Amino acid sequence: MADFVPPPLWPEIGLEPVPSPEDGLMAACRPFVAAPAHNQALGFPGELVEDWETRAVARLGELLAGNRALRVYLDACVGCGACADKCHFFLGTGDANNMPVARQNLLRAVYCRHFTPAGRLLGPLAGAGRLDRARLDSWYGYFHQCSQCRRCSVFCPMGIDTAELSMAAREIMNSIGLGQKYCNEIIGKVYAIGNNLGLPPPALADTLEGLEEDVRDESGHDVRFPLDVRGAEVLLVTPSADFFAEPHVDGLIGYAKVFHQAGLSWTLSSYASEAANFGLFIGSVEQMRKIALRIRAAALDLGVKRIVFGECGHAWRVAHAFLEELAGPFDFLDPRYPRPQHIAEITADLIRTGGIRLDPDANAGMVVTLHDSCNVARASRMGDEPGGQFTLPREIVRAAVPRFVEMHPDTTHDRTFCCGGGGGLLTDDLIELRIKGARPRMQALKQVVEQDGVTHLCALCAICKSQFTKVLPAYGFDREMMVSLHQLVGQAIRLGTSSL
Amino acid sequence: MAAELAMAAILVVAASALLVGLTLRIVLYARTPAPLPLATTPAPTGRVGAALRVGREIVLFPSLWGADKPLWLAAMLFHLGLALVLARHLRYVIEIPPAWVVALQGPGQLGGILMMAGLVLLGLRRTLIRRVRKISRPTDYGWLLLLLLIGGSGLAMTYRWHTDIIGLKAFLAGLWRLDLVPLPGDPALIAHMVLAAALIALLPVSKLLHGFALVFSPSRASPDSTRLGERRHG
């Protein structure tokens, strides 16, 4: 990562110019290709198959027949360019193929060539083109420069979601043996061990015991971190980064304190010790289902009544929107509660009803701003009302800290910018992309740091937390600025005391 | 009557291509499974709300408003102008036009100008803004040119080379009865009709389909209604 500099930050949002698109600036930026063993563990061909072009076109045809979104989105683009300056990766890199419509057109060209009369007749005049080696290379490069954050879909007058197209392209590449190492290796670990980090059950048990000791020493309270406890009320499914990464683990401590104080019996599962579902990132419903079924199996095995998800953006998308379709029916759970729930819903409700008390003075000196994670903001909901995914986390932050500050409205709520590491890009072989892609968020952060004295950046997504911890220093910020939502809760919660 | 026969054939082929093509596309969209809900959130939690969301997008372009206000203006000028022009044209195909069609004749003329203004702005944008130029395909310019020619020939007949509108109406009325009536031979009229027929015929197999595609666009049309369970948290 030595041969590039992070793009400069301007004093205020809106001053920075939109880059003039140039070809090929990021052409060399591509993640490591998966080894045969990584692909085969998921049932994909180990290496690029001989007749890859034919098989890729055939796979595209199958996906078109099974996914209305793909078909409609490939047809509907008028090339108006409304999306062109909305992607953090374009804003951060200036590479022409990182304009969402240009990225889509890499796939649309092949669709036109093989599935539309205009493309068959007019060829390049209609933007059609074969999936030759050069195009396959640009697919691999640029469909791994999309974090599937859906920001473009907010602004597209037809609602075209580039995420769907990049997922389809990755699925097609996997089907011909061109997988991405990071995602495929991780999914393999979930199948073999149970979580993305490859943390085996005994190590997980050790970690949780250690946390119990830490919390006892720090707070004097006997807060439990139960694992595989049959008959618990709640199964907590959380990203495995919560088990030891910073500041994720402080979030896990926060969940445990909330459950403790609310008197809810809960457990983690060593079999479903992962909320993340990278099947989404590689566009494979099959893999997504296999991973989701582990959660179902764990819930049945432990006999829980409720499933609650920890802080993980795309996991909450899969849970909120897809879980019933992928792994349902969840009719064995308590029908009085949403299936599944987000930990923030539980915490916000306990704060409202007085079930837990937060003391903002415990976080004295903190001025906190909130990063809306893309999959929470644009692909899910919390609570009963649309937009609850924005209000609930804010209610919690406001209750937990002395001062809360919003970033620029063009960078929050459903207009939030991706952290730059989502969608299966959180790997060091893409560090240049990650740093450049973080620029729009860093720009907004710089403004509130300088104008409002913001000291901490809060997020409720494991990928956001890892990504920011890594890229904050590249923009001159302290990595310790990054906090988990439930870290703030854990620090502010009054344990043991009567609620009045 | 060779010219009349050719024009009749062109119109019948174009109308059939539109009807058949559009029906096939819509059936294809409707039949293609959408197993996972893909709404861009915040989204309405019910079907009615989702339908209203799509309706608003079709009429007011709120997403585009949020994205790019000059582009919204150009797009609105063009589409609103086109809608007025199409309403005005009903006079030529309905023997005794209803009062609202008659009332829209004046606004319809204005619509022609709005539509052309919108097209010129869209064309300027496509050629002058580098990032829009970068993403433009030859056919994108082709559609603009085709629409400009259709609009231009129409405006020319409105303001400069008036055509025999009674004769045109008689020709179109004759088509319904499978009767060939002489067609006024003005070049502007012939060009206008042939180009419009080409546009109509190609609509179902081109990006001009986008309005119909929007109805099926999962990010807008699907409700956020999948989560089960009573509305109780705690």
From TrEMBL, chain A:
SUPFAM superfamilies this protein is in? alpha-helical ferredoxin
Recall the GO molecular function terms of this protein's record: 4 iron, 4 sulfur cluster binding; metal ion binding
Q: Which domain of life is it from?
A: Bacteria
Its source organism is Magnetospirillum fulvum
Cross-referenced Pfam families, in alphabetical order?
Fer4_8
Q: What is the protein's given name?
A: Fe-S oxidoreductase
Q: Where is the 4Fe-4S ferredoxin-type domain?
A: 68-87
Tell me which InterPro entries the record gives: 4Fe4S_Fe-S-bd (IPR017896), 4Fe4S_Fe_S_CS (IPR017900), Helical_ferredxn (IPR009051)
Give the record's keywords alphabetically: 4Fe-4S, Electron transport, Iron, Iron-sulfur, Metal-binding, Transport
TrEMBL record, chain B:
Organism field? Magnetospirillum fulvum
Supply one GO CC term from the record. Answer: plasma membrane
For this protein, the record's InterPro entries field holds: NarG-like_domain, NarG-like_sf
What Pfam family does this protein match (any one)?
Nitrate_red_gam
GO MF = oxidoreductase activity
Where is this protein localized, as stated in its record? Cell membrane
Main location as per UniProt: membrane
- Return the protein name: Nitrate reductase gamma subunit
The answer on whether this UniProt entry bears the keyword Cytoplasm reads: no
The record describes its membrane topology as: Multi-pass membrane protein
- Spell out where the chain crosses the membrane: 6-28, 71-90, 110-129, 141-161, 189-216
Q: What residue stretches are annotated with the NarG-like domain?
A: 69-213
Q: Which UniProt keywords apply?
A: Cell membrane, Membrane, Oxidoreductase, Transmembrane, Transmembrane helix
